[in-house]
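SEVERITY: medium
COMPONENT: batch folding queue
REPORTER: lab tech (J.R.)

DESCRIPTION
The queue accepted two submissions in a row. Attaching both inputs and their returned structure tokens so the on-call engineer can compare them side by side.

ATTACHMENT 1
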Amino acid sequence: MIPNSPGAGKRDAQTHDKITYVRQMLGELRGVASDEGADMLCYLIEMAFVEAGDILSGKRHLSFANGERNKAAGMPVKPSGKIQF
């Protein structure tokens, strides 16, 4: 987690809220992917959902120390525009 520093408790609460939000959105996305029959996408979303749950429960740290993890590819992700169902 975040080391003891001024304001660390507030940051921890904000981080918890954000991860909770991400997990909720992943649950909703999983339903959309399932409705469309996107099995691989469902699997990947489920893995992210489990990861978020593990972070919230304390089973897994938010991230590892610098140098001990693979960095994200940094691929730009742009919204495709309005979503139509």
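ATTACHMENT 2
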Amino acid sequence: MIKLFSPLQLGPYALKHRVVHAPTTRLRANSDDSDDSDDSPSEIMLEYYRQRASAGGLIITESTHVPYDGRGYLGAPGICENSHIPGWKKIADTVRAKRGRIFMQLGHDGRQSSR
């Protein structure tokens, strides 16, 4: 029988346990309703992921839109502009500093994203 707290090899990644933080949409990116909305990760997102990181654990991020017009919700983070990279790098570095792993869930909100 597989034990929840037993190690797992996930491709090249060794996890200390099988408890994975599943994606949870928080809608806390740096966004507003203007045309110059940034959608980069916010400081509150950094804190959220920092609090949940654990040594040998895995976090899957909230859905992150790849094209700007694929965003369906105000406050959803993006990874479609160079300006988004520093915020995500801070989050990834924070999780890795706690010896955790982080995978990004890429998304497009389909028809709902039509404006």
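NOTES FROM REPORTER
The radius of gyration is 15 Å.
No errors were logged for either attachment.
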